[in-house]
Design goal:
Elements (H helix, E strand, L loop, with lengths): L1 H19 L7 E6 L4 H14 L4 E7 L1 H10 L4 E4 L5 H9 L4 E15 L7 E2 L1 H9 L16 E5 L4 H9 L11 E3 L2 H9 L4 E6 L8 E2 L1 E2 L6 H6 L5 E9 L4 H11 L1 H9 L7
Parallel strand pairs: 1-2, 1-3, 5-10, 6-7, 6-8
Antiparallel strand pairs: 3-11, 4-8, 4-9, 4-11
Length: about 270
């Protein structure tokens, strides 16, 4: 009997693993949350649905906080987040019988951006902190023109804002004069049209309509983010309620696998390996 169990146990474990990753026709996956993770999720979903035409994946943004809230409420299968779950969110989740599991899917750098015509090329963490607190108000104080700085920030539901607040502001408050935007794309739009504005975005949203500036003399690149030398780098996550099963498990395995990580790289973010 013991010998039979020794033989059967590995087989049962393999069968359990295969079942956990099985894809079923007609399955629907709902994904909500971070706008930073959104391009990776959308491109991965498109590629995954081509391979699995019977699966439908619905994706929306709204910010990391809203994604995690949707997971706790049971209205999403996957919560995209550009930050780790907060203690109070974890407490609320467990009180409702939800057990969040993080899946790291990419690495990102938060890049401060300005208009291409702005002559400033680099700022220190301290300078950006003072700018965002409203204590440095003119570009001439940091080597630019004698023009007032227009501060553009993400709203508080954003995971990007949470990381910026921790690593740049050191938990100080953003100036009440700041223009708050709901997404990375919205910040790019604002900065591209205002010669004296400053904002911050995920590396994957960087394009020619804006100019990235160095932080502490270090440029945000795939290499500096992966090595940790760039000072405002962070992992990107997909959270699930418990360990994922079925099609959700299969999709996450796809994202962290070779094909998914190629998509991460193509979308301008940093692959895990």
């Amino acid at each position: 009997m013991k010998k039979m169990l020794k033989v059967l146990l590995p087989c049962l474990m393999c069968l359990s693993f295969l079942c956990a990753g099985s894809v079923f026709a007609g399955d629907t996956i709902v994904i909500k949350g971070s706008t930073t993770v959104l391009p990776v999720a959308q491109a991965s979903a498109e590629a995954y649905m081509k391979i699995n035409p019977g699966v439908n994946i619905s994706i929306s943004g709204g910010g990391s906080g809203n994604g995690i809230k949707a997971m706790i409420d049971g209205s999403t299968d996957i919560a995209n987040a550009s930050r780790f779950i907060k203690g109070k969110e974890l407490k609320l989740a467990t009180e409702k019988g939800i057990y969040p599991v993080p899946h790291r899917v990419a690495i990102d750098a938060i890049v401060p951006i300005i208009h291409p015509e702005n002559p400033v090329n680099a700022l220190t963490i301290e300078q950006m902190s003072l700018i965002y607190q409203g204590k440095i108000k003119n570009w001439k104080e940091v080597g630019g023109k004698d023009k007032q700085i227009v501060v553009v920030s993400r709203d508080t539901s954003s995971g990007t804002y949470e990381v910026w607040a921790k690593k740049v502001l050191h938990k100080a408050k953003v100036t009440p004069r700041a223009q708050l935007q709901a997404s990375n794309g919205a910040i790019v739009q604002v900065i591209s049209k205002n010669s004296y504005a400053i904002g911050y975005i995920g590396l994957g949203y960087l394009n020619r309509s804006v100019k990235a500036i160095k932080v502490n003399g270090i440029e945000a690149t795939v290499q500096t983010a992966l090595s940790g030398t760039y000072p405002i780098a962070r992992p990107l996550f997909m959270f699930t309620n418990g360990w994922p099963k079925g099609t959700v498990s299969d999709f996450i395995n796809f994202v962290v696998g070779p094909q998914g990580q190629e998509i991460v790289k193509k979308e301008g973010f940093v692959p895990l390996y």
